[in-house]
């Protein structure tokens, strides 16, 4: 039965148990009104607009009927165009820029319309030209690429002449003649031009060969000069800071070709095949006789936006391969060879679909599975291609992309989950095979000191844990048992940390049932033998090691449990402090209350006992811990007046929750919110030799550091937003209260920005001190520091901080160079810093 609100609403009716019924809003009382809003019926105009939009979106979905569907749609558009011009043009614009697999279909539609009504064809071209102007002005390079590809397809549909498209190419390529153009700006434009050529190359070669060859020669000249251009600007084509594969040898696991170099090689390969792509669908071929009779339009001239400090361009990153025909045995890859244009076409369309549906993973999955229907099916079947392999590869590529993925990892997890459910016969096996290939590449062929970038490994593990949680933690874990013999390998770390996140997403016993017993035993257990729990040192006298301290801690815990007044709690703390200082605990004249919180060993013992008892009392839930922090906030603040005290408190909290890192991250965050500890104390704890000697590869350590820096940034951003809103109020200029609020916010922003600057300086200074001491220690033992696992993880996270906080660090470069990265620092450290700065200089659009 369909309840009010529609079949798929959350409306429920259940029995009360006495024969009556109730719904989610209370007892059922007969003919009560539905609590669901019923929208008014649609007008005829609204229904027609919805129908026209639907027709535009769905055209071409059924490949065998594409020709007839286009003819029917043209008839409808002709009939309705006069009364619904804006709806049709708007719908067509969105379809072309948001459905990249149908570019040729919409160009063919435009061609048919143009033969029927030249003026409508002109309106469509004008509308899409306006869209190009808008995309260029806004730096929306994906839309620019798709619109240029549409204009190229218009040549196939004879709506525009080849010469008109060549003129458009020439206009774009004039970017090379600008004075001192940035490499990434020229790269972006050249890539966009090249990315349209496969769709129109046969026409250009046949009808405008000389001009087409000239365009290609211009591009070839630039591509050949790129290494020299990059070197002249103090960098290289492939940025070292953004390499996903950090092999000990240059081609580990394969040569690092960036997108532009690879596409140019694929274009040259296409030219050898006389420009025949094979894989592309050519719906315009159905109407060649009709198109030969039509009149053409001129493409307008477009102006590239001037370059500026705020301009961002896509980074031509190294191409990320999983199903590489040169590495995987023949017959195991069901995709075109990596050097062919067919592979580019599959990769490019798939990537665009993934990026264009970030808020609808179900619809995205449906389009990805239907992708073969928008290509030459006969060609795909003849070559035994499985485009779903490209989809899985692109998803992994986005997951590990540096400096950051375009969407949150949960989107890719949900998308892959939908693919596995909707294509049960193919997707799960492809997904598993791809992950096994990536798993094998986590460590370099030459050892565990090199391999996949550590940030990419973390992202992969966090995503995999999310995926497992949706599929019952089912995996062939036994296949990974060899990794448990080497705790230094990235494979060991990947499994350990993924399982820890699985526990966070579920619970210990549930995950324990899914993994082999070998994971929980042996010399290097990779799965914890017990469920995550706190470590309360004062739980028993033997563990405490001091009967007097244990008795006092027991008394304190009892007082907290009974919610005794702060005065009674402080009296116990005073006695603890006296004991820690070697005094008689009952000598009231031996120490004052203030001394109890600041006096040497006594204060340290008070801090340790008090914090552990507080955490033990509040460990039942997050609400418990928040309540007890608020209850004893005054005491906590007295105990943490100095930087040394705050660092000590951070270490106590970390030790208490060392077996439950999720609680550790949360409690540290809450303590910072209450100003019990501060960012500096957490940073100093994370980047200490003692912590990293044991935990350099633990992800919670680096997540804690990253979260602290993110929180500092968020605070600054929130103040800036509030300040801007206050300044924009109408009464600002005359309202004294608003003026005072602005002054307060400006002061607060200045303080926050100063704290942020100090935090980043501290982070880099700590990294430098750590790495410098490590270099000295290793070299004194005759060990090359760069060939160690510690270097891989610590330096890798140094890079991650630099990549993730580009906007903030960029504003501090002068200070960091003058204060932190001075001339006396080891050249290996300054080289890493130089690589990070080269990334900043390229001003990459992630």
Would you kindly provide a written description of the structure presented here, covering whatever features stand out?
The structure is a single chain. This protein has 38 helices and 8 strands. Strand 1 and strand 2 form a beta hairpin. The longest helix has 45 residues, at 736-780. The chain is elongated, with a radius of gyration of 32 Å. Residues 1-34 have low confidence and may be disordered.
State the end-to-end distance.
Answer: 48 Å
The percentage helix is 55-70%
Largest sheet, spatial ordering of strands: 1-2-3
Strand proportion: under 5%
Instruction: Give the overall average pLDDT.
Output: 90
In the CATH scheme, what's the topology name of the largest domain? Serine Threonine Protein Phosphatase 5, Tetratricopeptide repeat
Tally of helical runs: 38
Shape: elongated
Radius of gyration over all CA atoms, rounded: 32 Å
CATH top level of the largest domain is Mainly Alpha
User: Biggest sheet: strands, sense, closure?
Assistant: 3 strands, antiparallel
Low-confidence stretches: 1-34
Instruction: Briefly note the structural class of the backbone.
Output: mainly alpha
Summed up, the domain count is 6
Overall CATH architecture of the largest domain: Alpha Horseshoe
What is the number of strand segments? Answer: 8
């Amino acid at each position: 039965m369909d309840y009010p609100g529609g079949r798929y609403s959350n409306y429920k009716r259940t029995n009360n148990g006495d024969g009556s019924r109730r719904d989610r809003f209370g007892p059922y009382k007969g003919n009560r009104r539905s609590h669901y809003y019923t929208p008014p019926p649609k007008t005829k105009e609204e229904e027609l607009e919805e129908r026209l939009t639907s027709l535009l979106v769905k055209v071409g979905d059924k490949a065998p009927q594409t020709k007839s569907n286009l003819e029917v749609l043209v008839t409808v558009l002709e009939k309705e165009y006069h009364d619904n011009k804006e709806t049709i043009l708007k719908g067509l614009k969105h379809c072309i820029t948001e459905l990249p697999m149908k570019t040729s279909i919409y160009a063919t539609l435009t061609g048919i319309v143009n033969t029927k009504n030249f003026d409508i064809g002109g309106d469509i071209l004008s509308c899409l030209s306006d869209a190009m102007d808008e995309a260029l002005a806004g730096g929306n390079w994906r839309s620019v690429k798709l619109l240029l590809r549409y204009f190229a397809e218009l040549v196939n549909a004879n709506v525009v002449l080849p010469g008109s498209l060549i003129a458009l190419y020439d206009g774009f390529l004039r970017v090379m003649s600008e004075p001192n153009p940035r490499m990434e700006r020229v790269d972006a434009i050249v890539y966009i031009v090249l990315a349209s050529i496969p769709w129109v190359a046969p026409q250009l070669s046949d009808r405008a060969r000389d001009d087409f060859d000239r365009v290609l020669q211009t591009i070839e000249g630039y591509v050949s000069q790129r290494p020299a251009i990059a070197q002249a600007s103090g960098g290289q084509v492939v940025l070292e800071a953004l390499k996903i594969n950090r092999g000990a040898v240059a081609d580990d696991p394969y040569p690092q070709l960036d997108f532009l170099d690879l596409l140019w090689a694929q274009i040259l390969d296409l030219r050898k095949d006389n420009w025949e792509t094979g894989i592309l669908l050519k719906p315009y071929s159905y109407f060649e006789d009709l198109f030969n009779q039509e009149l053409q339009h001129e493409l307008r001239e477009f102006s590239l936006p001037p370059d500026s400090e705020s301009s961002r361009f896509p980074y031509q990153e190294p191409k990320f391969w999983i199903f590489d025909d040169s590495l995987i045995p023949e017959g195991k890859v069901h995709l075109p060879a990596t050097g062919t244009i067919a592979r580019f076409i599959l990769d490019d369309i798939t990537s665009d679909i993934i990026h264009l549906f970030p808020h609808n993973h179900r619809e995205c999955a449906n389009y990805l599975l239907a992708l073969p229907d928008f290509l030459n099916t006969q060609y795909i079947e003849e070559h035994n291609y499985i485009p779903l392999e490209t989809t899985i590869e692109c998803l992994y590529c986005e997951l590990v992309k540096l400096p950051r993925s375009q969407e949150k990892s949960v989107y890719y997890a949900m998308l892959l989950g939908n693919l596995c459910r909707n294509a049960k016969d193919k997707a799960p096996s492809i997904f598993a095979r791809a992950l096994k290939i990536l798993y094998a590449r986590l460590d370099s062929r030459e050892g565990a000191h090199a391999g996949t970038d550590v940030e990419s490994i973390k992202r992969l593990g966090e995503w995999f844990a999310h995926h497992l949680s949706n599929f019952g933690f089912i995996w062939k874990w036994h296949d990974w048992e060899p990794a448990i013999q080497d705790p230094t390998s990235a494979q060991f770390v990947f499994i350990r940390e993924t399982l820890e996140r699985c526990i966070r997403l579920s619970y210990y016993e549930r995950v324990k049932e899914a993994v082999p017993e070998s994971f929980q035993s042996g010399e290097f257990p990779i799965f914890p033998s017990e469920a995550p729990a706190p470590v309360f040192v004062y739980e028993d006298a033997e563990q405490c090691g001091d009967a007097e301290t244990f008795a006092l801690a027991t008394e304190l815990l009892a007082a907290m449990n009974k919610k005794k007044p702060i005065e009674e709690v402080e009296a116990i703390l005073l006695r603890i402090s006296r004991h820690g200082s070697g005094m008689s605990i009952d000598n009231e004249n031996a120490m004052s209350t203030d001394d109890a919180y600041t006096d040497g060993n006594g204060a340290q013992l008070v801090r340790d006992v008090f914090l552990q008892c507080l955490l033990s009392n509040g460990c039942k839930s997050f609400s418990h811990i928040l309540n007890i922090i608020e209850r004893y906030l005054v005491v906590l603040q007295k105990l943490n007046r100095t930087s040394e005290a705050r660092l000590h408190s951070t270490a106590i909290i970390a030790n208490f929750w060392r077996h439950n890192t999720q609680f550790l991250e949360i409690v540290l965050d809450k303590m910072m919110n209450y100003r019990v500890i501060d960012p500096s104390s957490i940073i100093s704890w994370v980047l200490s030799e003692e912590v990293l000697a044991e935990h350099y590869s633990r992800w919670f350590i680096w997540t804690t550091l990253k979260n602290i820096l993110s929180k500092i940034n968020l605070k600054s951003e929130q103040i800036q937003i509030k300040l801007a809103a206050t300044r924009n109020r109408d009464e600002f200029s005359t309202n004294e209260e608003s003026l005072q609020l602005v002054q307060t916010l400006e002061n607060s922003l200045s303080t926050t920005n100063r704290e942020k600057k100090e935090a980043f300086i501290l982070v880099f200074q700590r990294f430098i001190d750590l790495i410098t001491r490590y270099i000295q220690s290793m070299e004194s033992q005759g060990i090359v520091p760069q060939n160690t696992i510690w270097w891989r993880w610590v330096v890798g996270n140094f890079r991650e901080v630099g990549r993730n906080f580009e906007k903030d660090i960029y504003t501090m470069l002068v200070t960091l160079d003058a204060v932190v990265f001075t001339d006396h620092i080891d050249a290996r450290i300054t080289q890493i810093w130089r690589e990070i700065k080269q990334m900043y200089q390229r001003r990459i659009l992630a």
